[in-house]
Amino acid sequence: MSQKIHVLFPCQEGKGPEMLALAKAILGDTRAWKGCQSIEVYSNADAPDDVVLWETFDQRSDHEAYLAWRVENGMMEALAPILRSDPQFTYFAAHPDI
After folding, report:
1. Are strands 36-43 and 88-92 parallel, antiparallel or unpaired?
2. What's the Cα-to-Cα distance from 25 to each of 6, 21, 75, rounded to whole Å?
């Protein structure tokens, strides 16, 4: 069963557009990552400096390997000047029988 992940990038005031531009530039690598099924990008209509990604990976371990790669290649560190706090990752379990 696939893994849904909600990622919140709480950006500093006025940095939401910068985060969206960065996402556009790097998400091709993410979409090509083993197990990545899809990624959707949103900004909060009421707080546009909060950028949200809804990701679907084959399994959680695929996403965790992807995150480890982003840490290793310095991308998470590069986000520090844009963010007001650490990204928040939430993993969701599906309940197809409901």
Report:
1. unpaired
2. 20, 6, 12
* CATH label of the domain that carries residue 48: 3.30.70.100
| Domain, as residue range, for 85 | 3-92
pLDDT, tens digit, 9 for 90 and up, residues 42-54? 999 999 999 999 9
Pairing state between β 3-10 and 88-92: antiparallel
pLDDT of 96 above 90: no
* H helix or E strand, kind and range, residue 30: helix 16-31
Question: How many structural domains are present in the chain?
Answer: 1
Residue 23 lies in a domain: yes
pLDDT in tens, 69-78: 999 999 999 9
Gyration radius of the chain over CA positions: 14
50 in any annotated domain: yes
